[in-house]
Amino acid sequence: MAFVTRFAPSPTGYLHRGHAFSALTAFDASRAAGGRFVLRIEDIDATRCRPEYEAAILEDLAWLGVSWEQPVRRQSDHLADYHATIETLRERGLVYRCFRTRKELDIGRAPHDVQAPFTGAPLPPDEESARLARGDAFAWRLSLEAARDALDGFEALTFTEEGSGPGGETGSILARPETAGDIVLARKDVGVAYHLAVVLDDALQEITHVIRGEDLFEAAHIQRLLQALLNLPTPIYRHHRLLLGPDGRRYAKRDRAQTLRELRAAGVTPQALRAEMGLT
Question: Cα–chain-centroid distance for residue 143?
């Protein structure tokens, strides 16, 4: 069986240790298997992605010793394909327009409550037409109810986990897409959502193994449903541990984690960084 994996960062900031750990884990796995390694730039969020961050990603990965196949796939070059898939799902009655804002979904929820997954339904035709005529913004949501009706074996969908989830989940995993609710597949402000784009791209790039942090383990459940609905192959998943900082928290852009650019400027070598992260 061919082995193809990928690293798929979003150019919304500079890479840090956590990114390096994930990229090297996937790259090392591809080399160990005699397989292929591809780089994908997930830049569908035009409000946050920047060309300078994309250029820095390429520079940082090369410094780490990571090499990848050409050409690099940029999601922003394929928006028409994603929207065509949305249209296909619409024609099949699997998505609906949702006019609720994030603020409306939060109404009545205490600040520290865990929000229950949202499920809804299309508005009555007259009301929907009126809101469209007013130019009200909406999101395309995947209808779990419609998906359950359309898909034989909805309750028996599984995926294979070769690593482990945050709770130690491994082996054959029963997919539970209902835990995500009716997810947004497209929104006016950021275009197509992550779940749809990543499922389509993994299939188009013939990804056989998705190697990524365990913080994305739950995403596999809804992505498995999308694969089934779109008749796409299901890759093997291999979620890995998250690299934690001295404070016990995972590295994150929002916390201004020290970047690879800063480490390089401070004289840290790729070899020293590998050793620090426990990669031989």
Answer: 19
Number of H helices, E strands in the chain: 10, 11
Name the pTM for this structure.
0.91
d(CA 181, CA 235): 22
Q: What digits encode the pLDDT tens for the residues 71-99?
A: 999 999 999 999 999 999 999 999 999 99
The total of other beta-carbon atoms located within 10 Å of residue 192's CB is 23
State how far the Cα of 198 lies from the Cα of 195, in Å rounded to an integer.
5
3-state DSSP call for residue 36?
A: strand
- Residue closest to 104 by CA, chosen among 115, 96, 90: 115
Token pair for residue 72?
């690099």
In whole angstroms, give the CA distance from residue 176 to residue 126. 34
Give the distance from CA 42 to its chain's centroid: 9
| Ramachandran angles phi, psi of 200, nearest 5° | -65, -45
Q: What is the pLDDT of residues 207-256, one digit of tens each?
A: 999 999 999 999 999 999 999 999 999 999 999 999 887 777 877 766 56
Cis bond upstream, residue 124 (ω within 30)? no
| Beta strands, E only, 86-208 | 95-98, 139-142, 158-161, 171-174, 184-187, 191-192
Coil, helix or strand at residue 176:
coil
